Amino acid sequence: MTFIAPRVADKKDWLSGETGDWELIIGLEVHAQVASKAKLFSGAPTEFGAEPNTQVSLVDAGLPGMLPVVNEFCVEQAVRTGLGLNAQINKFSRFDRKNYFYVDLPQGYQISQFEFPVVGEGEIEITPEGGEPVSVGIERLHLEQDAGKSIHDLSPDETYVDLNRSGVALMEIVSKPDMRSAAEASAYVDALRQIVRALGTCDGDMEKGNLRADVNVSVRRPGGELGTRCEIKNVNSLRFIRQAIHYEARRHIEILEAGGSIDQETRLFDNVKGETRTMRSKEDAHDYRYFPDPDLLPLELTDDFIAKIKADLPELPEARKARFVEQYGVPAYDAGVLTADKATGDYFEAVATGRDAKIASNWMMGELFGALNNAETDLADSPISADALGGLIDRIADKTISGKIAKDVFGKMFAGEGTADEIIERDGLKQVTDMGAIEGFVDEVIAANPDQVEKAKQNPKLLGFFVGQVMKKSQGKANPQAVNELLRQKLGL
Ligand SMILES: Nc1ncnc2c1ncn2[C@@H]1O[C@H](COP(=O)(O)OP(=O)(O)OP(=O)(O)O)[C@@H](O)[C@H]1O
Ligand SMILES: [Mg+2]
Ligand SMILES: [Mg+2]
């Protein structure tokens, strides 16, 4: 298989093949687990990592005669998410049975929403890395229950079933086929993740599988008819999403250019090989025989219910980003990084308030994130609190220390040696601003370098040499501005 790089210059992710260009089309179905302590239709707990089959009510085990009762909290979270996606909230929706047989589905059907989802069309704005913002349409969001889990690797000839996940509430968020590159697809999932986390409706933890994507991919000639899609199930990291898309796009192009056609298929992504492969083809495509679940009444939401949720919505990442640019004057790129999650934004606001915001953002994005990264830890466990970083920045602003010395102080703060003030005091780092003392250093340096003084009169660039010498004499503590001024005066530059 030949690897064809996307033509970044075109901005769109057009792929060149042997016979011309192809346009990539991607639509995603994201399954986001509702952050609820109880399941969608039972009171069983949903906690992650429990012993197998310890969180299973009779309803989740699909025992005959058991009746589901809808969890109102989950409905509320779906509506909240819908509002966060700028989407239509449907006051009438209905639960349907999606029938299929599998060992991890004890009821023999999944309760889902088909014809009448709780949330309809919406739209979010995303910014792919290095690209311009694009808007992605949301087709719908519906509530459904998760299935159990089959465990194949405990024994060579037996399959075990863990029903802890059975009945856990999921929101399936279906996008329109609006994405045109792997970068856009991963930016979309990232944006969704940020939104649900800001809303608190889903933990968005892809490693734990509480946010995962079915990735639909097709290719077409630029501007032509949509091609046949293949759906890659359950991809659970942004990197795997990008890899799966690239692999799948190349596969489609190779087949089409050789004169073949694409079969609509459900495929799996093998993250070790970086390949997708057939899981089931159209021949055994499911006929789910959806019908309204007779055990559940339709959901009818009142205006009041929706209005209350709306009144309680937090500021979402996109809005916060715009506010950071506007209110604090930081560049859009910084604002994007600083609003990637709530805690980072809160930390920034605490440091920036009452201080130079650009300096606050530089210290966070440079020194702090660098140190956290090296220590393989994150902001939640930062040894330097927002207050403490603010305290350090204050000492630069009031010229107690220079920016250069501040970096050393930062290192010591990060190592837990104390606050900026304590370290400055302890190590005697206070900047020398006493003009008399600085003049002493300057005179000494001039006296010691008569040749250089003569040269400097022809070549003002030598000023740097003198500044360096004076700073060295003062052990880095002389106020650099004062040193510069005095030297210029004395050297007549
Ligand atoms: N030609 C296409 N190329 C790429 N993506 C497409 C194409 N046509 C549709 N899609 C995307 O495929 C997804 C279809 O999801 P939807 O949930 O509606 O149906 P499904 O996959 O048939 O159902 P199920 O939930 O049972 O998997 C949407 O995200 C849509 O944008
Ligand atoms: Mg779907
Ligand atoms: Mg699908």
UniProtKB/TrEMBL annotation:
Q: Identify the domain of life.
A: Bacteria
Q: From the UniProt record, list the reaction(s) this protein catalyses.
A: L-aspartyl-tRNA(Asn) + L-glutamine + ATP + H2O = L-asparaginyl-tRNA(Asn) + L-glutamate + ADP + phosphate + 2 H(+); L-glutamyl-tRNA(Gln) + L-glutamine + ATP + H2O = L-glutaminyl-tRNA(Gln) + L-glutamate + ADP + phosphate + H(+)
Matching entries from InterPro entries are given as: Asn/Gln-tRNA_amidoTrfase_suB/E, Asn/Gln-tRNA_Trfase_suB/E_cat, Asn/Gln_amidotransferase, Asn/Gln_tRNA_amidoTrase-B-like, GatB, GatB_C_1, GatB_Yqey_C_2, Gln-tRNA_amidoTrfase_suB_CS
EC number of the protein: 6.3.5.-
Q: Where is the Asn/Gln amidotransferase domain?
A: 346-491
Q: Which UniProt keywords apply?
A: ATP-binding, Ligase, Nucleotide-binding, Protein biosynthesis
In terms of Pfam families, this protein maps to:
GatB_N, GatB_Yqey
Assembly: Heterotrimer of A, B and C subunits.
* Primary role: Allows the formation of correctly charged Asn-tRNA(Asn) or Gln-tRNA(Gln) through the transamidation of misacylated Asp-tRNA(Asn) or Glu-tRNA(Gln) in organisms which lack either or both of asparaginyl-tRNA or glutaminyl-tRNA synthetases. The reaction takes place in the presence of glutamine and ATP through an activated phospho-Asp-tRNA(Asn) or phospho-Glu-tRNA(Gln).
Note the NCBIfam families from the entry: gatB (TIGR00133), PRK05477.1-2 (NF004012), PRK05477.1-4 (NF004014), PRK05477.1-5 (NF004015)
**So what family is this one in?**
Belongs to the GatB/GatE family. GatB subfamily.
Q: What is this protein called?
A: Aspartyl/glutamyl-tRNA(Asn/Gln) amidotransferase subunit B
Q: Which organism is it from?
A: Algimonas ampicilliniresistens
Gene name of the encoded protein: gatB
